[in-house]
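Appendix B: complex inputs.
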Amino acid sequence: MTSFSTCLSGFSGKLLLTLACLAASSLVCAQDTAPKVATPPANPARDLVVGKCLQCHSDNIWRDQRQDARAWEATLYRMLGRGAVWTGEEIKTMANYLATDFGPNSPKVASAIR
Amino acid sequence: MREIVQKYLSKDISRRGFLNNMTSVGVTASAAELVLSSLNNAAYAQTPPSAGASTASSTGAVKQFTGTGGACFAEQLMACGVKYVFGNSASEDAQFYEALVDRPQLKYILTTHEGPGAAMASGYIKASQEPAIVMQAGSVGLMNAMGQIYNAFKEQTPLVVYSYRTEKSRMSGRDNFEEIPNQDQVVQPLTKYSWMARGASMIPETVRHAFKTAWTPPHGPAYLNWNSDYTDERTRTEIIQQSHFDTRMRVRPNPTEVERAAKMLLDAKMPILIVGDEIYKAKAVAKAVRLAELLGMPVTQMRQMWVNFPEAHPLWVGNAPSGTLASITWPKNYDVVINIGNKMQHNGVNPIVARGVKFIDMRIDYNNMGKVMSTDVPLVADVGLGLDDLLAALEPLVNERIKLIAAERAAEVRKYTERSRAIRAGVINNPEWNNSPMIADRVTWEVAQFADPDAIIVHEAGSVAMHSFGFNPVGGRELFFYYGGHLGSGVGTAAGVKLARPNQQVICLVGDGSFLFGPHALWNMARLELPVITIVYNNHAYGGPHSRTIANAPSGRMVETGQYVGSYLGNPDMNMASIATGFGVRAEVVQNPMQFKAALARAKASSVEGRPYLIDVQVARRGIGWNDTPWIPPIKGSAMRTKKV
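Resulting structure:
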């Protein structure tokens, strides 16, 4: 299983922010003076994406993608031919999550290279 | 039994003698045949070319020959067992061409470009496991062939390459026409042997050394050359049969290490087997299957050229998707890993097998052993012989308790493989399945439905996934994957494979980008009546590089602006069917699944007639940054003109 630190180093954008919040929240216990950061709500669909996709690659290859649930579903089905073992139900769940955070109207990740 | 094998390999006994001896010591006829088939393969390229030589005494194997350097070259090639010479027109080889006229058993195949010509030679060697040579005109031809020499080096194909030095021997060093310094050294990093003959009489010896080195495992390319005047010069020299200079290197593993490996495997809770191309070369698939079944061991494969285990076998858990063992879905609790003949190509920071897991490595490719992997048990061996020894060490130790453990483990593996196969078959549930232009997975699936049960699939279709074929190297469908990665090899390889295996359907799957690097062998298919079916996945783009470029510069300016300078091949769109027609190959363009099915039927009818066929399938571009009108650089020669000429 992918470790949390691996996820953190590989992800960016909204998902990275969420994961960073999780990491930051663990510091709250140790440092009373640190600013309070709200723990993001549990998101099994996001966890599914993290667990499945990071098995083979970082998010670099798709984090700039913006598309609807049907197109995400098509993207995920393409992984079956590459060795993924994901049920139709899991694909549907992941596609719906991705269409929310990486949908056509989601903000683009700011350019990191100028 | 070993003595009988040694006698056979030393040609002290015939094939029939081998079988009789084996059965006389209690081996069943079928088992003896199985052993024989592996030995025949192990001895490939060592079978003397003529019947007379098969019983050759030392005197019969060596003959004195007088003739031009070109004739000496031809004589030694025949003595090496070469049937086909793949070449491109080379004026300084005139005396070699002269020699061919009266030696029809040495067939010359004229190719229109040195790269695809070398790919064709490689394809022939890989599919026939027989020797061949590829030749070019001087340094200039060599430069075109070097990409395929690179592929042969990476794939460990025993490709022997020759090109003359255009400059005469007594005039070198004057910056002659086509002269470059140290021509043989240009290919040195990519070959096992590169040498220049220093005289006409040395030509046969140089040829022998090249074949011996290339065909001694681990295999790899060899290069030879000499000044062009040596080809014209008359000389007297020796021609020696292959059987009398080959080293017959058959390495058995260290017996102590075999015992250690056996114990480690028996003590393992979840051993896993990685298979590789050395198994295919040694025709040892049945032995690998036997090893896996004996221990109820799951089997996987890292990146390789061939599929080396039957994909329908219940112990086959699938390829490692991203090239490390950590990327396989199941099992995750392996405690002993045994590699049999996989090259274990590392493309990332992490070792293929994580540190801390016991690792047994069996292969003849000693140079790549212990390079990245921490290896507990090294077994340097011909994997066919190595598997024999390992099985012989294991079988007496497999008691009832071990059998029960293996059976329980096999049941666990089967449970996973049945479930995973059912899920992966869901690739057809892709919501874009019926789209036009087609998605690549649909094209692949249709080809898999269409292909013969023993079809050979030559794959140079970029990042297209080869699902649904159920490859089986033992009498089923076979895969020839473009492992080396120098593009432009697919069409040539397919032509060479068909030449070697005329009675099997050969289907070449190629991306439009790959195809454009080397379509030339289409002409050879038409001329030589090699009915290959070529399918071009034409998405008018370098799709793989496009995606990887974005992965290497995520969220960058390219993504922001949509300006991908290295991706789009359209505007105007290229028509691969028109290119094929120009080479004399029937062809058509298809847009959707219905048209594709009908085209495949026409392709089949054409191949029955002995004629090749090409289908240009319009494929959808998928991934980040694509739209209906991709950006192209604003460079227009017409806008730069001041005169309309």
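Residues 400-424 of chain B form the longest helix (25 residues).
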